[in-house]
Amino acid sequence: MSGPKENVEPAEMAPAAKAELDRAFETFYREHLRDVYSYAYYRVGNHHDAEDLTEQAFLQAYRHFDRARRESDGRPLRPWLIRIAHNLASNYYRDRSRRPQTSLENADPIATRHDTEDLVAGREELRQVMANLDALSDDRREALIMRFALGMDNREIARALGRSDGATKVLIHRAIKQLQEEMADDPE
Amino acid sequence: MTPSEQPREKVWDVEALLGDALRPIEPPERLSGRIEDTFTALSAAAATELSDWAEELSEAELSALRDPRNWVRPVVAVSVGGVATGALVLFELRRRGKAEASGLKGLAGGVRDLLP
Q1: Same domain, A120 and A92
Q2: In a domain, A110, yes or no
């Protein structure tokens, strides 16, 4: 029996409904392409796989977009989209037995520093923090990527990770604390 | 170097460092084009699929055709069609035969008219 929450794939929709869905999805896609790409890049560590992952995430999102809109009750859909990317990235590692390779390739550190010595020191600090970030558990690292690369708040991160708000707050707090300890212990 | 300058004693502003290290990354332009091409292709494929589907038999029609009781009509239709086709072929052959015969008769008559 078909209920109101049942997913109707775009290809099965009436033309007018599909046109409206396509327009809404296009806006959604343009608003969040950078978020998904940033998240994917920091998860997989290279542009090639980040592009594949981003494309897959949007294709999957498109298939379920209508249902997600109906079930969101007006809440932002970004956590749902990032959760799709998160699941795809998890499959990516499971299938290929890979680990993320964080990279400073695109991090242009600290534009306000002009002194060369400071700039080098800045890069070294960033290298350290990225190396320590890489050593965190998956859930802590992902929460920090969502917080700092995507600017998501605790509630959004909680929804993306499928956790409670309180548990997410604790997760982020512990992740930052662990990084501070690792950085303090770093011989550099 | 004073003790305060020792790296081990440095107080790290980890959140500021994370803010610098984890900057949003602009997707390459080719990615936007690639994704938009994929969606365009999907829309085109969906439209073609819908069109093909409309031309195909419905599931009920396919089920009906699988029932041997419904094979009588197609068999009769094929038989009738075959007979009709045969009749048409026969009729055509006869028509051509008559035409050829009348043509020969006419030619013979014309030749005869020319003879002294």
Answers
A1: no
A2: no
pLDDT per residue as tens, chain B (116 positions): 555 555 555 677 899 999 999 999 999 999 988 888 888 887 777 667 655 655 665 666 656 656 656 655 555 554 554 444 444 444 444 444 444 444 444 434 443 443 44
Interface of A with B in 73-102 (CB under 8 A): none
| Domains in chain A, number | 2
**pTM of the predicted structure, to 2 decimals:** 0.66
Write out chain A residues lying below 8 Å of B40, CB-based: none
Residues 42-61 of B with CB under 8 A from A: 42-43, 46, 49-50
Final residue in a domain of this structure, among A46, A76, A100: A100
> For B12, which of A148, A151, A183 is closest by C-beta distance?
A183
Residue A163 included in any domain: yes
Is the CB of B20 less than 8 angstroms away from the CB of A54?
Answer: no
CB contact (8 A) between residue B14 and residue A150: no
ipTM of this predicted structure? 0.77
Q: What string of DSSP letters covers chain A? A: ---TT----GGGS-HHHHHHHHHHHHHHHHHHHHHHHHHHHHHH-SHHHHHHHHHHHHHHHHHHHHHHHHHHTT--SHHHHHHHHHHHHHHHHHHHT-------TT----TT--SHHHHHHHHHHHHHHHHHHHHS-HHHHHHHIIIIIS---HHHHHHHHT--HHHHHHHHHHHHHHHHHHHHH---
